[in-house]
Specification:
The complex is a heterodimer of chains A (113) and B (110).
Chain A lengths: L3 E4 L2 E4 L5 E7 L5 E8 L3 E10 L2 E4 L6 E3 L9 E3 L8 E8 L8 E2 L3 E5 L1
Parallel strand pairs in A: 2-11
Antiparallel strand pairs in A: 1-3, 3-8, 4-5, 4-9, 5-6, 7-8, 9-10, 9-11
Chain B lengths: L3 E3 L4 E4 L4 E7 L6 E7 L6 E7 L2 E5 L2 E6 L4 E6 L8 E8 L6 E2 L3 E6 L1
Parallel strand pairs in B: 2-11
Antiparallel strand pairs in B: 1-3, 3-8, 4-5, 4-9, 6-7, 7-8, 9-10, 9-11
The chains are: A mainly beta (113), B mainly beta (110).
Chain lengths: 113, 110
């Protein structure tokens, strides 16, 4: 079945550590997105990529980094510069042009310990 | 003013009620409008998609877009306990990322 796989489902990070969240899709979608969800905040855009080897900052990119070396993969690194990383992270993808909406993964819950 | 405003609720209704969920927006360039449903600790799933103005119906769900008022709505008829979830409106201009509302948490009580 086609879809988006995010891993791990739960992740714990110590203060000062970098961690990488995985996002893989087999939908042959061109564009991929990372959103952060906090209680009462809705979804806020971190980074997005519309083609391989290119990506753009979203509204809250500070403290995060991404890469897009393959069409099907869009990993997100939460760096130690992100001061409040505890949140639910969602990856999404779609064909360019937004004709069919986004398909979301099941999310990664990151907690700082 | 945020680009997309959505009352976070929570909203509690009895089973069988008609539910009305709404969002307002400020960006007149928005032309793609969507509603997503999100169960607790899951990824959002697309419920309804509308391009530009008008109504769209799918089973018990109806989406309305009024671009003149910058107002979109989702109606759920004959609501069921399984409809209990958070409903997120989302919208975008051409070839730009979706902007989401904060989501409205809905509980349908049996």
């Amino acid at each position: 079945d086609g879809g988006i796989t995010q891993s791990p489902k739960y992740l714990f990070r110590k203060e000062g550590q970098n961690v990488t969240l995985s996002c893989e899709q087999n939908l042959n979608h061109d564009a991929m997105y990372w959103y952060r969800q906090d209680p009462g905040q809705g979804l806020r855009l971190i980074y997005y990529s519309q083609i391989v080897n290119d990506f753009q900052k979203g509204d809250i990119a500070e403290g995060y980094s991404v890469s897009r070396e393959k069409k099907e993969s869009f990993p997100l690194t939460v760096t130690s510069a992100q001061k409040n990383p505890t949140a639910f992270y969602l990856c999404a993808s779609n064909h360019n042009g937004l004709l069919y909406g986004y398909t979301f993964g099941s999310g990664t819950r990151l907690t700082v310990v | 003013q945020k680009e997309v405003e959505q009352d976070p609720g929570p909203l509690s209704v009895p089973e069988g009620a008609i539910v009305s969920l709404n969002c307002t927006y400020s960006n007149s360039a928005f032309q793609y409008f969507m509603w997503y449903r999100q169960y607790s600790r899951k990824g959002p799933e697309l419920l309804m998609y509308t391009y530009s103005s008008g109504n769209k119906e799918d089973g018990r769900f109806t989406a309305q877009v009024d671009k003149s008022s910058k107002y979109i709505s989702l109606f759920i008829r004959d609501s069921q306990p399984s409809d209990s979830a958070t409903y997120l409106c989302a919208m975008s201009a051409f070839d730009t990322p979706l902007v989401f509302g904060k989501g409205t948490r809905l509980s349908v009580i049996a």
